[in-house]
Amino acid sequence: MLKNRFIRQLFSSCLDLLPILAVVLVFQVAVIRQPIPDVAHLLEGMVLVVFGLALFVQGLEQSLFPLGESMAYAFARKGSVFWLLVFAFCLGFGTTVAEPALIAISDEAARIAAQGHIIADSDAARKSYALGLRLTVALSVGVAILVGVLRILRGWPLHYLIIGGYCVVTAVTPFAPADIIGIAYDSGGVTTSTITVPLVAALGVGLATAIKGRNPMIDGFGLIAFASLTPMIFVMAYGMLR
Amino acid sequence: MSAWLWHFADMLLATGRDILPIAAIIIGFQLLVIRKPLANPRKIAIGFFYVVLGIACFLEGLDMALFPLGKLMATQLTSPEFLGIAATGPRTWLTYSWVYVFAACIGFATTLAEPSLLAVAMKAEQISGGAIRAWGLRIAVSIGVAVGIALGTFRIVTGTELYFYIVVGYVVVIIQTMFAPKMIIALAYDSGGVTTSTVTVPLVTALGLGLATTVPGRNPLVDGFGLIAFASLFPIIAVLAYAQLAQTLGKPHPKP
């Protein structure tokens, strides 16, 4: 049974990868018209991508989704708002500080900043800049999930909060140094990645399902939206204060 | 072979370390605050192991196959030889047309293959009772990312203000929000963050920084970042439009 499901998962992963392969192939053959170097290495990588994708989805359905949901149910039933909010903050902070994409991008940002003489071009300066960026973003996501959970509990309409957030972003940007704006705007999208999204979405949907009078369709989603909004504000503040 | 195995073990360890805080938080809360044992610890442990192994393989595969290829192409598409112009000759934004086409295609393809988006789309279909189709949602988001990244590369090539584009985008989102069906709004806002995950982010960032480096007169520090911001904003617009369209065309759609 498990074996069959995994094979089906593998097949669907192949289908997922197909569009990427098609784009790259069409461009290489029709536009760039140069032979692709090192095809064997490439194919090896493709096999790993397909295999990894299948394993990831399989593992997700077995651990992270049901765990996040059962935990949200448990916290909603327990009725302790304090612990729920602590959990929300930890979840946001923990998933973000571990995010591989964020690690990669903050290192890249530190490298570019050192090249542009914004910070000293030394290993220590780059490391502290990158770590500061990561912790700022993780903190902002923790706050975002906390506010998002509070929103689900109180039933505040999402779009007022989001539009308010947009207004803050718009108002803060003119005061932020030019070199941080691009990174700040990007960090909104970087935060919510492989691990964060499924877990946070499960928390929101599970929570909205467990609370009476909430429609999971309307109230359950929206946590990730906060997690993409607050990092922009926090990182711009980091750029101004640093 | 053994060097490769060591490298892979390293990779597995790094992924495991990345997963550790979140595993610790979940298990810690379960045991200390809820004070209930895990319902099915064996299955969950195996699931976590699958996730770690899956991400490690996935990232390794991207590093080996897709990144080098993407980088190679980004360089090739902006080289004067490919464009057929002199190295210092005059160029307009139209000179780089292939860059926009490539950016759009890459945005579309990577988003369609995105595991996080797949997970959330399945969840959305399940919760809406089939009113929102997982495939429809994925395609709407992918088109949004394609348009977003293409416009983002256009911004890098022309060197215009990021701020201006994003504020205009916000205004469009706010206007759409006022007319869109209520049940899709939160999902649409979420889809912006969902698209830009571990697959898309490094690839797209490398593209932006590469462009800002190769296009004359651009500074990677000021112009290089910002593509992800586009890739997070445009899916919101696309999903809201998809919902609006589905409603207008009178598709089965539960009225509250």
Automatic annotation (TrEMBL), chain A:
List the InterPro entries hit by this protein, alphabetically.
Answer: UmpAB
Q: Which UniProt keywords apply?
A: Membrane, Transmembrane, Transmembrane helix
Task: Give TM regions.
Answer: 12-33, 39-60, 81-98, 131-153, 160-185, 191-211, 223-241
> Would the keyword Transmembrane helix turn up in this protein's UniProt record?
yes
Query: What name is this protein filed under?
Result: DUF1538 domain-containing protein
Q: Which organism is it from?
A: Methylovulum psychrotolerans
UniProtKB/TrEMBL annotation, chain B:
Q: Which UniProt keywords apply?
A: Membrane, Transmembrane, Transmembrane helix
Task: Enumerate the transmembrane spans.
Answer: 12-34, 46-67, 98-122, 134-156, 162-180, 192-212, 224-245
Give the matching Pfam families: DUF1538
**Keyword Hydrolase found:** no
Q: What is this protein called?
A: DUF1538 domain-containing protein
Protein species of origin: Methylovulum psychrotolerans
